[in-house]
C-alpha cells in the first residue's frame, strides 16, 4: 500500500467524507461506502469491483490482504485510524471500507413478479432490513418513494447486508403512478385490514405496500391499493414494525409459491 493518509486535506479523504455524509453526493456520483469485510465480500460476490479499498492503519493484514487480492482493479490505500473513524458509520470500526459504484440488479424475466413498495420509510437501518427481507424472499423489485431514506447510505447498506447488490430497485419513485400502471394487484399492509394476508393469492403476480413507521400509508396511495390486509396478532401488542410485517407477508408468498 501507499503511504498512510494522515491529513483531512487529502483528496481521497475529502471525496470519501462526502460519500459518508451526503445522500446528494452519493446520488450524483452513484457511489457509496461499504463498511466491513462481509459487505465488501457480498459486493464482490455480486460482480462488483470497488474503486478504492481503504484500510485503517491498525487493521490486521490477515483482514485486508484477502480483500485486496479480490479487489483486482481497486486502488488500495491506508489511512490513519482517527481519520478512518470519521468515515466509518459504526462506533467500533472494522478496519476496512470500500468506495464502490452502485450496482443495478436486473429484473428477472422468468420469475413470477413479487414487488415490495415502500412509502416514506425514514430509518435507514429499517429500510435496509426491509430490502434484506425482500431479497431473501426472492422479490423481483423494490419500489421506493421519494420520501424514503437513502437506500445506498452506509447505515442502510449495513441493514441490507448485500440486498442492494442483488435486489432490483426503483428509487425516488412515484408510487401512485406505479400502482396505477401496474398489471398486478397491490395489497396494502395496515392495521385492521379487511382480510388477513394469509387469505391472499400470492402465487400470482402481486405487490405488497408498506408505509411510514409512524404515519403509515398516505390516503392517496392507500386508495389505489387492491385492498387492505392485516397480519393476525392474537397477542397483546398493538402492532409490528414495518420490517417485521413486510417479512411475514413476503414469506407468505414464498410459502404459497413453494408448497
What does this structure look like?
The chain is of the alpha/beta class. It has 2 domains: 11-101, 60s Ribosomal Protein L30, Chain: A, CATH 3.30.1330; 114-258, Alpha/beta knot (3-Layer(aba) Sandwich), CATH 3.40.1280.10. It is 37% helix and 20% strand. It has 11 helices and 11 strands. The chain has helices spanning 11-21, 23-29, 37-45, 61-70, 81-87, 124-136, 154-160, 163-166, 175-181, 219-222, 242-258; strands at residues 31-35, 52-56, 75-79, 96-101, 114-118, 141-145, 169-173, 186-189, 195-196, 206-210, 227-230. Strands 7-6-5-10-8-11-9 form a 7-stranded parallel sheet. The longest helix is centred in the C-terminal third of the chain and has 17 residues, at 242-258. The radius of gyration is 20 Å and the shape is elongated. The termini are far apart.
Order of strands in the sheet with most strands: 7-6-5-10-8-11-9
Count of discrete structural domains: 2
Binned, the helix content reads 25-40%
Helices and strands: which structural class? Answer: alpha/beta
- Quickly count the helices: 11
CATH superfamily of the largest domain: SPOUT methyltransferase, trefoil knot domain
Mean pLDDT: 92
Tell me about the largest β-sheet.
Answer: 7 strands, parallel
State the CATH class of the largest domain.
Alpha Beta
Q: Could you tell me the number of beta strands?
A: 11
β-strand amount: 15-25%
Unreliable residue stretches: none
Through-space gap between termini: 52 Å
Radius of gyration: 20 Å
